[in-house]
Each structure stands twice: as C-alpha cells, then as structure tokens.
Specification:
232 residues, seven-stranded mixed beta sheet, 7 helices, 11 strands, 24% strand, globular
Length: 232
C-alpha cells in the first residue's frame, strides 16, 4: 500500500500563536484538513495515518466526519521530537513493502503532481525526497563567517515533503541510527543518507508553492495560493 503519514505533533512556537500551527485556519479550513485532503483525493494513496498529540485525537475525528475523510484509518500518538513521530508511524505498520509518504502537516499546499511523482518514483527507488530548485545563490561559510564554498546552484535543492520510503528501508535506517550514541535528530531522508548510504534517494521536483508555515507571513502566502487554485 501507499500510506500517507501526516506529521502533526508540533507546537509551532516560532509562529507566536497559542494555537498549534496545524490547527490554524486558511480559507475556512485548518492546515491539517488541507493536508489530509490533498492525500485523500489522490488516487495513488490507499490509506492515511495522522500522527499528533493524543489530546487532539477527538478533533481529528471531527475533521474526518466533517470532511468525509475515508482514507484516514489510524491516529497515532506523536513524540517530543519529529523523528519520534516518524518512528510512531514506521512502527505502526509491519509490511516492509508498504510505501510511507511522510508529510509535514503544515505543508498544506502540496500538489497532486508532487504526490503522483513520488508514487511513480517509488516504483524504481526505495527512498524518494522532494526538492525545489533554488532561486538564490547558496554560500557555505566557515567558523569565522567567511565564504568557504559556493556550491553550483543548479545542483542544490530546497528540501520539502513528502519524504517517501519502503517501510523496510526507513525502519532499518532508524534501527541503525538509534544504536549510534551520537545520533542527532534530522529529517528522515537524512537518516537514510547517513546510515544506509548504499540506498539511492531520488529527488522529485518540488514547487515554490509547497511552502511550510513557519511565520505569520507564510499564512498569508498560503491563503493566496489556495485562493488561486480555487479560481483556476
């Protein structure tokens, strides 16, 4: 199966709001509802699991009822760190051939094209990332703040989600990582890249619209994106 994992256990402190980001509303629906809807409507997705705090389970059930989300089959308790939430989803399933689409809930404008491209890439690769082309030059600096390197921009990408894996691959990568006393939290592709370097991670083309809500200005931009799609 292709299983979308909506990661929604964060608190969103950088936004400066008492409401967790995933429950902020844009165009009449919460970011969580928009994100679930994107995978609900995609023909490549068989099932959806939402990872969030247990106290929010009743609210997610209300979203299911209100929107008629039929693919949402599991509500999973998230952890303190992002990787704890990823692990909750990885451990909730047992079929190593299942494909998990791990998606940041607050990237509520993920397109059908991106989801489709990820599903196609998983036919040939066991790990798939999403990356948007850069519009600015990237500079690497040293400890003194001086330029140490200027990577070729055409080879750089801004990482996005979903990040997608055969369940067996991401499970093995985390098993190895958690035995490393120096393991530090990173994104899920970073875990595979570091601890299973033999696994090639394919990067599908992302979008400048696949933004992650971090600051208040991001909500305004997301509203413009959603309204633009509604009137397209």
């Amino acid at each position: 199966m292709n299983i979308a994992i909506i990661l929604a256990a964060g608190s969103g402190t950088r936004l400066g709001s008492s409401t967790p980001k995933q429950f902020l509303e844009v165009c009449g629906k919460t970011l969580m509802e928009h994100s679930i809807a994107a995978f609900e409507s995609n023909g490549n997705i068989d099932e959806i699991a939402v990872v969030t705090k247990e106290e929010y389970f009743p609210l997610v059930e209300e979203f299911k009822r209100r929107n008629g989300f039929r693919k949402v089959k599991r509500l999973l308790k998230g952890g303190r760190e992002r990787y704890d939430s990823s692990l909750a989803a990885i451990n909730a399933y047992t079929n190593d051939d299942d494909c998990l689409f791990l998606h940041d809930c607050v990237r509520a404008c993920v397109s059908q094209e991106i989801i489709d491209d990820c599903a196609r890439a998983l036919q040939d690769y066991d790990a798939v990332d999403v990356g948007a082309e850069l519009t600015d030059t990237v500079v690497a600096v040293d400890d003194s703040g001086c330029i140490a390197d200027i990577p070729v921009r055409s080879m750089m990408r801004n990482g996005q989600t979903p990040q997608c894996f055969r369940r067996g691959v991401i499970k093995e990568a985390f098993d190895i990582a958690l035995r490393d006393p120096g393991f530090q939290a990173t994104d899920d592709c970073g875990v595979v890249h570091k601890y299973m370097p033999q696994v090639r991670i394919y990067v599908v083309k992302g979008s400048q619209e696949n933004i992650k809500v971090t600051y208040k200005d991001d909500l305004e931009r997301m509203e413009r994106i959603i309204k633009g799609r509604q009137h397209a």
